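Q: How would the structure tokens look for this protein?
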Amino acid sequence: MATATERNGTGRGLGARLRATSKVLPEHARAHNRSLVLQHLFHEGPTSRADLARATSLTRVTISDLVSVLITEGLVEELGTRPGQRVGKPAILVGLRTDAYQIVAVDLTEHGHMRGAVLSLTGEIMVRRQLDIDGRTSDELVDLLTRFVRRLVAAAVHPVIGVGVGSPGIITLDGRVVEAPNRGWYDVPLAEVLAERLGLPVHVANDANTAALGEFTYGGATGSMLVVTVGAGVGAGVVVDGVRVHGQRDAAGEIGHVTVVDDGDVCACGRVGCLETVLSVPALRSAVEGKSPEDSDAALASAGRVLGVTLAPVVSALNLTEVLLSGPRDLLDGPLREAALDTIRQRTMPAINTGLQLRMAALDEDVVLAGAAVLVLSAQLGVS
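A: Here is the predicted structure in token form.
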């Protein structure tokens, strides 16, 4: 996610925090300070100018100037005085106009369809849509996605400040899909193409990274966690100490194409036995199809053990506090999740695994949509 620091080129990977917390260098100050104000209003609600100054460590003059600009932009409004205040001059509260703008978000995680929504700035879904992909890949899929987003924009009742897309694959910070085998996308400047066609800011990121943003901003997840998304493929979004990890080539968390079975099935990437061939939704559905409940549970537990073996070194190396699973509950929340947690505990030290949680994502099936909205909030407003 592009924070105020990242947008100005001063941070990347470990070191670029998801939430602005303090003042920075003068050349970045105005954008960063604007983010500080919006961030505080987004998470804390209506606040007086004096309290904003105290919370952000900015001067009252700076706060007054920033608030005036934000009111002019239509992002902030004055809301009257604080209820119950009786002593001294009443402080006028200012608040973020969360109901004045909307965001369009798209989730491309699922194999057979794309899901979309129109959301408020606070993450409330106002409109939902779903569209079958019907096997489309490459340019045909980009065309279908364009039409789908246009319909969502048309369904919005307030100005749309941007479009967020969560997609499988390795995706750069500027929204270029380097490689997404399941979608037939290789070196596709998806964000740029969509922005030109739609006339709106468009932000595209890996679906697992996007899910991590959604859980961090709207789902109450901790600042050291990993979100595993299970759909047409398998991916992971990593946050360590409040920092989203990108990796040197924007491929951090790309666990779906780690080889885990020596004599397994051929993967879409061309290798044999990738985690995706064991843990993706199509693979799990195939594994339980026609089986008795007992045999189905055994098959899911087997996949969970493979996941646990894959994640144990990651959890240990990064000392994560929780792992979240995002995908169909009927497949993930049960024998698979339990077996994965047991395997991680067996393969890591007590100092690492004590208190470790492996749970379903709080936002459930909406986690990528929520995270796609955060992509827009962060890039356009500096809020996460």
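Residues 293-318 form the longest helix (26 residues).

The chain has 14 helices and 16 strands.

Upvote if useful.
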